[in-house]
Specification:
Layout (H helix, E strand, L loop, with lengths): L13 H13 L14 H13 L3 E5 L2 H11 L7 E5 L4 H9 L3 E5 L9 H7 L6 E5 L8 H10 L3 E5 L7 E2 L2 E2 L6 E5 L11 E5 L2 H12 L31 H7 L6 H19 L5 E2 L7 E2 L4 E6 L4 H12 L6 E2 L25 H6 L3 E5 L6 H24 L1
Parallel strand pairs: 2-3, 2-4, 4-5, 5-8
Antiparallel strand pairs: 1-9, 6-7, 6-11, 8-9, 10-12, 12-14, 13-14
Length: 397
């Protein structure tokens, strides 16, 4: 049995391919190659993404990490600032904080992989002005309590929605709760190989971020999604050349109307796979908050009541079938693990003990919309079979 083909990257829709080919053929691949801004694929994508999310503005850039850096700086983060951020996130998130000259203050998680509100309260200091709320793997929990806490302490919230496009909290989409939000298009709900976008209702954040992204010589005027104001930041802030190319935008633009259908396809596959995996006594599926309409193109679960040797045997057998099941704590190269962020203060990982306890035995598996019901059932059967078998063999030995 070789199931490796089920996990291959999906091609974009045919309309995306045709749109990108057209941009390449006409040679106008730079976002500002279009004298008529209404013809610019990037400008169109920004405006349509903002409309789909329900916010005023969007700024397309080369990655979500770039969007986070621009959001922090445009919201007023200064070198030396302390930035609250969940301890379970991707290294690009904490790296964006470092790129701003700031320092992350890691907040622990609960066993559902979501931020621990009690630890958030514990980590707060009067000089902390920002929370970078990262919805790692699309997971959202207790957002009302988090926002109440931040409002009380005048903490500015910036949302890292790299994994949460299509996820809702109490009927509202993630990305509309903070002063700015940041999304990724690298193998996410919308996908283009690379790319990111910053969304906001704030005029000043949009104008400053636009200039810093690389709108030299008043090129910000070639944006459809911007305030109808003169930009006071032109020539007064540094520029980082973080622009999105017209080719990337052309790939993404036709996918915007598909956000809801893509989300439901992932939800259905997640529900089926986790319901089948939960039949094993050695697999714990994390709960989903009742207020969250959750969507993710990955599945996480914790292996419980198993010795490390059993886990390793099960994972080896599963991978031999072509199912690329990852384990966060397997080695020192997984950049989703706080203990591997060696550019941070030495020993900072011990400030988030639940991360150190939960993540090492957590498994992570990408799912694809192209997977059929039978494919999902086969994957679940492979995983539960080898997990249960490894435990039985271990007990006998």
């Amino acid at each position: 049995m070789n199931l490796h083909h089920l996990f291959s990257p999906e091609p974009p829709p045919e309309e995306s391919i045709s749109s990108a080919a057209s941009v390449i053929r006409n040679g106008r691949m730079f976002r500002y190659d279009y004298g008529d801004v209404s013809n610019s694929p990037v400008a169109q994508f920004e405006q349509n993404f903002a409309n789909a999310l329900g916010c005023k503005y969007a700024l397309a850039v080369n990655s979500c990490g770039s969007a986070i850096q621009l959001a922090l700086l445009s919201a007023g983060a200064q070198p030396g600032d302390l930035i609250l951020v969940p301890g379970f996130t991707f290294t690009a998130v904490t790296s964006a904080i470092i790129n701003c000259g700031c320092s992350p203050v890691l907040v622990d998680i609960e066993d559902d992989y979501c931020i621990d509100v009690l630890d958030l309260q514990k980590k707060y200091r009067p000089n902390i002005r920002f929370l970078l709320m990262s919805y790692m793997r699309g997971r959202v929990a207790r957002l009302d309590a988090i926002l109440d806490f931040c409002n009380f302490h005048n903490i500015t919230v910036i949302e890292d929605c790299a994994h949460s496009l299509g996820t809702y909290w109490c009927g509202r989409p993630t990305g509309v709760f903070g002063v700015a939000s940041c999304f990724s298009f690298h193998d996410k709900l919308l996908f283009s190989g690379e790319g990111g976008i910053l969304a906001t209702d704030n005029d000043q954040i949009l104008m400053q971020a636009a200039v810093m992204s690389g709108t030299y010589e008043d090129l910000w005027k070639r944006h459809l999604s911007h305030p109808k104001l003169d930009n006071p930041y032109q020539g007064k802030v540094a520029q980082f050349s973080m622009r999105m190319s017209a080719v990337t935008a052309a790939i993404l633009q036709p996918q915007i109307p598909l956000i809801n259908s893509f989300a439901e396809e992932y939800r259905s596959r997640y529900r089926l796979l986790t319901s089948l995996l939960s039949k094993s006594d050695y697999i714990r599926i994390p709960r989903i908050d009742e207020n969250a309409e959750f969507v993710s193109n990955t599945v996480q679960f914790e292996l419980v009541n198993m010795e490390n040797s059993m886990i390793e045997e099960a994972l080896t057998s599963i991978r031999n079938t072509g199912v690329p099941l990852a384990r966060f704590g397997l080695h020192d190269r997984n950049d989703r693990c706080v203990w591997n962020w060696r550019y941070l203060e030495n020993g900072i990982e011990h400030s988030v003990p639940s991360c150190l306890n939960v993540l090492p035995n957590t498994c992570d598996l990408r799912i694809r919309r192209t997977m059929s019901t039978d494919d999902i059932s086969t994957i679940a059967e492979v995983i539960t079979h080898f997990v249960d078998n490894a435990v039985k063999r271990g007990i006998v030995e």
